[in-house]
């Protein structure tokens, strides 16, 4: 099995696992919708535990690595919480698909900073990916308000998604920057610092704002957070592995294309969200972009 094929398989596996996190967040939010800061902190706690468990060489935390981890944690913290809010006030599939725009940060970093090679097919694939996201955001005109709630786009949701995209995109850049700076070493330590910053920040804010519901959240959200956190940890673990195997300008849009297809299927099967012909076409464009992006490798 070639490195490229293995990387694509791992990217598919990681993207599939990541959907567990989205489903758990959506389920908890729809049933309880309390303590977003604390619940998101719990997710990061379990994700951090994952990287402690998977470490094989002993942990070491150079000062510069800690700085990188804190900066990464700031972006990750912002993206994690606002993604939680977005899943709660908007469509699961549209939230997932708009988050695909975060790929532009990593792609730009790979192409223009790291000077990774690109072909015409690469740029066509990226264009198709953007068209895909544009198409899937369109919503069907509903005959009644009850149906329209399923795909309602609110100002709150738009703000959360935009800031989530920025945070997620910069988090991806920080992951690759850390690998370049430390020659692909200290991946687990980097993620542990990132998650630790996120846990502490969100937990402190959560206790201040919603401390009275702490035990309620632990009792009703603990299991959801455990599954979501382990999913998040496994996803980022596989992302780091794939980023080290193939160019980031290919790895990130590949994962986004896979996410488009998987989140589309989940939205139909699990959440019964109604999609238009334009949104289905967007999924097809996303799949086509996935193929074109990987022709160069």
Ends: how far apart? 14 Å
Main beta sheet strand tally, sense and closure: none
User: What's the number of extended β-strand segments?
Assistant: 0
Helical residue percent? Answer: over 70%
Can you give a write-up of this model?
This protein is mostly helical. Helix content is about 80%, strand content about 0%. The two termini are about 15 Å apart. Mean pLDDT is about 85; it is low at about 140-150.
Overview in brief:
With 297 residues, the protein is mostly helical.
Which key terms come to mind for this protein?
single chain, 297 residues
List the helices and strands and how they pair.
Elements lengths: L2 H29 L4 H19 L8 H27 L2 H7 L4 H11 L6 H17 L8 H4 L6 H27 L5 H24 L3 H32 L2 H22 L7 H17 L4
Helix pairs in contact: 1-10, 1-11, 2-9, 2-10, 3-8, 3-9, 4-11, 5-8, 5-11, 6-12, 9-10, 11-12
């Amino acid at each position: 099995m070639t490195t490229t094929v293995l990387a694509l398989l791992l990217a598919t596996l990681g993207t599939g696992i990541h959907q567990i996190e989205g489903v758990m967040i959506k389920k908890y939010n729809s049933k309880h919708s309390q303590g977003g800061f604390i619940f998101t902190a719990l997710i990061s706690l379990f994700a951090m535990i994952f990287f402690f468990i998977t470490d094989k060489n002993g942990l070491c935390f150079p000062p510069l690595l800690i700085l990188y981890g804190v900066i990464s944690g700031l972006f990750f913290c912002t993206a994690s919480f606002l993604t939680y809010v977005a899943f709660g006030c908007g469509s699961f599939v549209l939230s997932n698909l708009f988050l695909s725009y975060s790929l532009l940060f990593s792609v730009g970093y790979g192409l223009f900073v790291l000077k990774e090679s690109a072909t015409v097919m690469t740029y066509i694939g990226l264009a198709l990916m953007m068209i895909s996201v544009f198409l899937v955001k369109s919503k069907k005109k509903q005959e009644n308000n009850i149906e329209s709630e399923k795909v309602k786009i609110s100002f709150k949701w738009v703000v959360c998604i935009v800031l989530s995209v920025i945070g997620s995109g910069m988090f991806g850049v920080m992951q690759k920057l850390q690998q370049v700076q430390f020659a692909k070493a200290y991946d687990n330590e980097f993620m542990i610092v990132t998650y630790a910053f996120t846990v502490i920040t969100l937990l402190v804010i959560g206790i201040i704002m919603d401390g009275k519901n702490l035990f309620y959240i632990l009792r009703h959200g603990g299991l959801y957070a455990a599954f979501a956190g382990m999913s998040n940890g496994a996803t980022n673990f596989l992302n780091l592995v794939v980023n080290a195997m193939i160019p980031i300008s290919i790895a990130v849009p590949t994962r986004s294309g896979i996410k488009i297809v998987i989140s589309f299927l989940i939205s139909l099967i699990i959440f019964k969200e109604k999609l238009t012909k334009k949104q289905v076409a967007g999924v097809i464009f996303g799949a086509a972009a996935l193929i074109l992006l990987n022709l160069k490798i």
